[in-house]
Amino acid sequence: MSFDLLAAARREMAERGFEPDLPAAAAEQARTLEVHADPGLRDLSGLLWSSLDNDDSRDLDQIEWAERTAGGIRVLVGVADVDALAARGTPIDAHAERETTTVYTGVHTFPMLPERLSTDLTSLNEGEDRPAIVIEMLVSCDGDIVSSAVYRALVRNRAQLTYSAVGGWLEGAAPAPPKVAESQELAAQLRLQDEAAHALREARGRKGALSFDRQEVQTVVENGHVKGIAAYRSNRASHLIEDFMIGANEVMARTLRDGGVTSIRRVVKAPERWERIAELAARYGESLPATPDPAALNRFLLNRKGSDPAHYADVSLAVLKLLGPGEYVAARPGAEQDGHFGLAAHDYTHSTAPNRRFADLVTQRLLKAFLARSEAPYADERLDTIARACTLMEDAARKVQRDMAKRIAAVAVQQRIGEEFAAVVTGVTRKGVFVRVTDPPVEGRLMRGEAGLDVGDRIRVTLHATDPERGFIDFVR
Length: 477
Known about the structure:
Layout: H1 5-15, H2 24-32, E1 42-43, E2 49-53, E3 62-69, E4 72-80, H3 91-99, E5 103-104, E6 109-110, H4 115-121, E7 129-139, E8 145-162, H5 163-170, H6 178-181, H7 184-207, E9 215-222, E10 225-233, H8 236-258, E11 263-267, H9 274-283, H10 294-307, H11 312-323, E12 327-331, H12 358-371, H13 380-413, E13 420-429, E14 432-438, E15 441-448, E16 458-467, E17 472-476
Helix pairs in contact: 1-13, 2-3, 7-8, 9-11
């Protein structure tokens, strides 16, 4: 008997406080919208912009371009001007503020914005002129951002590319994808971007930004049915975009701070379970300070990656769990503010994904008002409320995605009951002990043999049972 994963996803969305269907008023507004050129925008559409994203991405939020100068590599990140069509106070805006985020369930995407906007009118699709917010960074040879600017412009994506195709080429493990092979200029452009991104990453590492080996799980679907799940790890192309987005978000946060604008920040506080992280490091013969220190933690992570790359993902996952989630806060000018512990950044916001995160759309509106020297679109107290809502709904989205991942995994592995696997403990709660298996990449509860275990412990487990309806995968030690 097959299990209806789409129906389960819709139920899960509703139970977590989301509205799975677009309201009629928002749908009608989306139907009537059209892109109109703004003659006042700086015209940068002639540059060789390109985008890098997942193979199946349709909501393209950003494009990139770079050039070498006497002072370093000048990097431009163009971010879709979603506010140009999703105006504040409209039905589309009301729905986006309620949802706050696009939710990816593995079997269906529930967009924050109507798909006509997020995948068409406000997506930076190849060959289309689009208004954008451009974040400019001059990256020195040692990876510092020595100057920056933010402004509005007209852009055109000249080459829509994917991580999977470009990553292997940048790493020297695969031939250039067709669009890159056909254009020496595009190939040179991507290598220059890669050089700038690598410099940014090295500089963040020296400051103590943490290096993780994050593994994403992709659902293998054939003819509408789940056939399995596969692990996907980031590559050089996805690192390029990650490095540029971090830099762009820091520039945006500093621009608003220096302009005296109250804005929404993304913060990750120092971990409360630092003592457990230190115990984990001690197990591998390394010592961490008594108080949270991102630089020391990053040295430990890099040492583990260098000495035992096969098991580094397990250590990386354990530390990520112990760090805890981030949150959104409204930062007032001059007020002391927590930074982002994992990125070793004092000033950080979310601004590069306005098609799928409401916090980014709000930041965009704040920036546009600042550039126009007009009144801020939100009062400080309103930003407090929005920040709290974004944090709560992001947590709800994580739970939807986690529970759907378990249901998908339960369907995918139900034929493997009785098999034995290597696992790492990922959670110890009042509800029980949870472990993750790396091949196949699934997580479940340990039903027997859990005494004395803590996050980061490596054990052997046997798949005992699966229940797709409840999303249960049960292991025994």
